[in-house]
Each structure stands twice: as C-alpha cells, then as structure tokens.
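Run log, item B.
One chain of 84 residues. Sequence copied directly from the ordering sheet:
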Amino acid sequence: MKLHLTFEEKDFENMRAFEKAVKRQLGNDVYVGANSVCFYFDFPKELSAMLRPFAPGPGSHPNKLASEKCPFEFDLESSLPDAK
C-alpha cells in the first residue's frame, strides 16, 4: 500500500495540527505518531477463530474452516472509534 499525503506549512505548527492534517486525508481511523501512522482494523469472527489455537481430533484437518473455504477473503472494518 502506498499513500500520498499533502501538507501545508500550518500543518507543522504542532503535533496536534499534524495529526489533524493526516486524519483529514486518511480518515479518523488512524493513530498518528511522530514516526508512523497506524490503521486500526478488527478481524472478522471467522478469521479470529482460525487464528486461535486448538487441539484437532484424530484424522481431522487442523482447521476445518481452512479446509472448506479457499481462497481466504475477508472484509476488514476499522475498529478505532471516530474522533470528534
């Protein structure tokens, strides 16, 4: 993923102004730090279940869902509440 961000001089007045400029371009579902920006997404319940450890029964596929549903496709939605 590549992002192209455009800033104005006023966006560098302080960290809060910079954060607002980034969120204006990427949306509120991001965490803005001095060195990085992070997007927040919740995994769907089905994907979360596939990532949890368990003890499969003898002769069974280690993950029944994985054996029945290939390729894997999941829609992710941001989990960070919108900032006000």
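Observations after the first pass:
- The beta strands are 30-32, 37-39.
- Residues 15-26 form the longest helix (12 residues).
Flagged for discussion on Thursday.
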